[in-house]
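In full, the data.
>
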Amino acid sequence: MGQSSSSRMQKEHTRPSTDSGPTPKPMPPPPPFATAVPVVVGTQIPALDLTFTMDCTGSMGSYIRAAKENIEAIVKTLAEKEKFDLRFSLVAYRDHPPQDMTYVTMSFPFTDKLSDMQASLGKLSAQGGGDGPEAVAAGLKATLDQQWRPHAAKVCILIADAPPHGLGESGDGFPNGSPDGVDPLEVLDQMSMNGICIYSVGCQPALSHYRFATDFFIAAAERTNGQAVALGSAALLADVITGGAIEEMDLEKLSAQVQQQVHTLKASEPELEEAEVQQRVWRNLESAGLHTRQMKTSKLRPQHAGLISKAKTLNDARSNLTTVSPTDERSMEDAFSGAPRYGAPRKSKKMGASSAPSAPIYRSMHSRKSRDTKCRDTREDDDTDTMMEELSGRIEENVSLEDASVTLEQVSRIYGKCKNQGLI
């Protein structure tokens, strides 16, 4: 494991030039948040705080088993191979009474010890759940309340197959939102302001049984500048966790450089729109030959995620979603044989069905292909095919980690994260 107590992130304070040469050149004022830009000094070990936030109701048994079976390989990859100063925490959630009478959330604090991680995961089991939507909001709030290190990269892996309460799903036991009053969108904004990004792992095909679940988990990733991934098999969970963490750490290394370029552009051309600023920063980084490692896998595809992403509160999101026509959505489902019907399926009280054994981390990268890919060669170029493929649960079973030029999407995520923290 990395030595979490042996190093601390240092900060560099930018001062205006005091050179008094014969013809001094006017200097622009320093950017207002320049002193907040973190820099890596010497042999600083990159710090990563990683939290699993998991739905632990009856349908999630295979994903809980995958986490248990692969946690040692995950730690070896991130702490030993990548040499991150890694800490791990865990948040389990089910539902509020009377939908579930066991627990709402169960939190395990950050630790850098593998044995503690294994012990925490060992306490999880899949059972309960009632009306379909679950205590996602409470799980996010418990995640926010963990003791995150200020200087560490902060990643939440949100693993779920059901939406939060209050989105307008049929049969929702709490149609106006969680009984504890926690608004998941407000929590997401607080997470983003604290630099916590979410990698949503949507467990298909169950997630697509709901009208708005996929859109919510895409919005959760967008709101925190993370990514939203579609999984059709728990066997790929470890690859997604390590791939997402490694990509995020590569972006963390570029954060100070992006901030510096943004401050320079805004000082010299204050009229520039944000989109143009991001474009210019990306072109600068790309022309400099900067590469990042990028996780390639099936992504959750939005239909109405923007209606949630742009809403300030859950009530606003629910109001926005009332404009969506169920008839139009079902016509897309009916266009593909076997697509699920939207609704709020009752959760199994027993442990979820077994999946294929989880392969050790990295052994499965570049190695799995869906049985359906032989007849879906053009899926990358056809959003409609992709959407219907996900509705039917046919997800390409492949996760790879590729080295490539930094992308505009990555620069936009770095920009959004820095902006939400007040760094630019």
Remarks:
- The mean pLDDT is 81.
